[in-house]
Amino acid sequence: MKSAALCAQLLLSLFAPSLFAADWSYAVRPGDTLSEIAHHYLKHPGDWARLQVLNEVKDPRRLTPGEKLRIPVDWLRQGAAMATAIHVRGDVVRVLAGAEQPLRAGDRLSVGEELRTGADSNASLRFFDGSRLLIAANSRITLARMKQYGNTGMADTAIRLHEGKLDSRVSRQQSPAARYRIESQALNLGVRGTEFRFGVAPNGPAHAEVLSGRVLAAGARGGAVVGLDAGYGTVSRADGGPSSARALAPPPRLAGLPDRVEHLPLRFSWAAGEGITRWRAQVFSEASDDILLLDDTFTEPSAKWPDLPDGRYRLRVHAVADDGLEGRNAEHVFVLAARPEAPLALAPAEGRAIRAQSVMLRWARPQGVSGFRLQLADSPKFDPLLVDESELSDVEYPVQVHEGEYYWRLASIADDGRQGPFSLAHRFSHVPPPSSPALEEPALEDDALQLRWPAGEPGQTFRLQLSPDAGFSSVLVNEQLSAPIFRLEREFLGRSVFVRVQTIDSDGVVGPYSAPQQIEVPSSLPAWPLLFVPLILAL
């Protein structure tokens, strides 16, 4: 009961400041006087006498350094505070009194302004007290209250989230007068120094997740107060109060992700947690959490983005529950060094088997590139290297190869001499051309002489040539055959001819001719069976 009463009292102090007047504590500095302090901080500088009475100060001109003075918040000078846009990405507009204009980094924002972010857009704001607000894509907020207490550094800030998602990092508030609140149609949050996320779905529930510190949550229509510590969250609908505190899903395990990425598109994968079906992945500049560059939700435990400039970044990933409650963050710092991009390999085709011993490697020329580096190896680890040329200016390079597999890769060299990353390895192989078929002894079938040789591999064809001389200076027959057989016609009766055959692969690669063999063709068919053996002479 005491805990609930304390939460209720604290919530009232956050959302109803007029009910809880408080004192601000000022630490005296060397040389301070009450009149100077009053002139610097109070609405009415003449109230220094009241300040003297309240703090029982004997000499208003001689204060002890380090002494704490009580100053009622109601006495402090108050005024309208401003917010500053410190980072803007994509389509973000500000609306005041119905007038729209694009939001730019450095713009100053006043109370009452509305901000809208489009798809793939976001903005980061800094408030008077140093608190930060990151407005995600497809969000709409109103700066409902921004008040500052003179030169104290204290601020009273209220933001209305109509739809979308926010990430807040709230500066530590030392006085009850300093407040930071986010309101929505379903859920209101009050905080003093914390880091949390807040989201409102269109016509749906609101959800809040606390990453550090403590947050008090209440329904927009009042009701129960829920205290949320770090690692807990709540979900609330407009027609009901916040759910009891729920533990956030644990952070995904990002172990094994590369520290250096050299190829685009950008890809990351992680282990899927039990029961998790959605993840939110974001990429920030390593220099600042205010600079959000990529932000998407994925239904597989992986993220993919087409492009990003070279630089140092922080990947942030967390699970997303079915009701929208988002889990604890996992982060991984990486360097993207993908430029200048490696050339596109043109030839030989990936994985192609090549018969020729001389192979011409060819590639495209990216813009802004003055040269290339080429490496060739017979191992995918590129150790040892058979070729390592680092000063190539042309887009082709001949290499001599022997039977086996080969791997090659390319890197671009920019005009300033800077070498980019190597491409992924490309592979080709050298295989010997098809062997020449061995002619069998001719056979007499259907009163004709048939020449045969062993069948080849699937898809292979054959070329047969007949010539009157062993040098094949003139060719009597030149035929491409789909089967390993040829019928010698009657026109060759009584003649001496030479025959040779070659194999042609399905990809058009031609093997060597067989050694020429001589056939003495008898002048009459009945004599053929008697002349089979002596008529074939291997030269």
Secondary-structure blueprint of this entry?
Layout: H1 2-15, E1 23-27, H2 34-41, H3 48-55, E2 68-72, E3 79-80, E4 83-89, E5 92-96, E6 99-102, E7 108-109, E8 114-117, E9 122-126, E10 132-135, E11 140-148, E12 155-170, E13 179-183, E14 187-191, E15 194-200, E16 206-212, E17 214-219, E18 222-229, E19 232-236, E20 246-247, E21 260-261, E22 266-269, E23 279-285, E24 292-298, E25 302-305, E26 311-319, E27 330-336, E28 345-347, E29 353-354, E30 358-363, E31 369-377, E32 385-392, E33 396-400, E34 404-414, E35 426-430, E36 443-445, E37 448-452, E38 461-467, E39 477-481, E40 485-488, E41 496-504, E42 517-520, E43 536-538
Parallel strand pairs: 12-13, 21-27, 29-35
Antiparallel strand pairs: 1-2, 3-11, 4-7, 4-9, 5-6, 5-8, 8-11, 9-10, 10-12, 11-12, 12-15, 13-14, 14-17, 15-16, 16-19, 17-18, 19-20, 22-25, 23-24, 23-26, 26-27, 28-30, 30-33, 31-32, 31-34, 34-35, 36-37, 37-40, 38-39, 38-41, 41-42, 42-43
Helix pairs in contact: 2-3
Low-confidence blocks of residues: 1-15, 17-21, 528-539
Radius of gyration: 42 Å
Largest sheet: 18 strands, mixed
Helix-and-strand structural type:
mainly beta
Strand content: 35-45%
Named CATH architecture of the largest domain? Sandwich
Could you say how many structural domains there are in total? Answer: 5
The third-level CATH topology of the largest domain is: Jelly Rolls
What are the key terms here?
539 residues, Membrane-bound Lytic Murein Transglycosylase D, Chain A, Jelly Rolls, Immunoglobulin-like, 5 domains, 18-stranded mixed sheet, five-stranded mixed sheet, 3 helices, disordered N terminus, FN3_dom, Ig-like_fold, LysM domain-containing protein
